[in-house]
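#struct-pred
JK: can someone run the complex with zinc ion? inputs below
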Amino acid sequence: MEYAEIFENNRKWIAEKSGSDKDFFKHLAEGQNPEYLFIGCSDSRVTAEEIMGATPGDVFVHRNIANLVPNNDINSASVVVYAVEHLKVKHVVVCGHYLCGGVKAAMQSRDLGIMNPWLRTIRDVYRLHKDELNAIKDEDARYDRLVELNVEEQCINVIKMAVWQKRFLTEGAPQVHGWVFDMKSGKLIDLKIDFQKILSSIREIYDLGTSTENL
Ligand code: ZN
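RT: done, structure tokens with the ligand placed:
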């Protein structure tokens, strides 16, 4: 895509959107009320709204290398707090993808400078699930499984947060979902992880003194 094309594309997009709904931009400017928080990878192929069939205003999006929610990362934490506490989203999605370069990099013995601490979060996921992963002899299958386990662990990092526990334990929302995007087929796969069950099992460690009404 040439640089100048972007602005031509933008003009066409404005015409198309205004053509099907003359008040489209008026409504867009009135505010946002998204029901979904999508935490995905920065990979250019994981276009959150497009793969979900969503339109502007539907999804609050955060993307970083390998869709991480590290425990002391103020960036992703701020996104979760804003989405859960202020926007009152109904669903929090962590979406990984097969063939993730960040996950691949964390499986290799390489010094990647400033990216080392970021990718260490994925190495920690590997360590937590070392027995399962090392039992998978096929390297591609092990890579796919690490992508899935990374999604699960990042979702667990969300449910460790007070802001999520407070709302979930009183309202039963937002639901947390772990997804994987398979770019070879275009499919979005729901890993169907039961986070309420996981919360029950880890709560004695991560209990932040929030309400227990629904547990
Ligand atoms: Zn990726």
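RT: quick notes.
The radius of gyration is 19 Å.
Residues 41, 43, 66, 97, 100-102 surround zinc ion (CB under 6 Å).
JK: thanks, will look after standup
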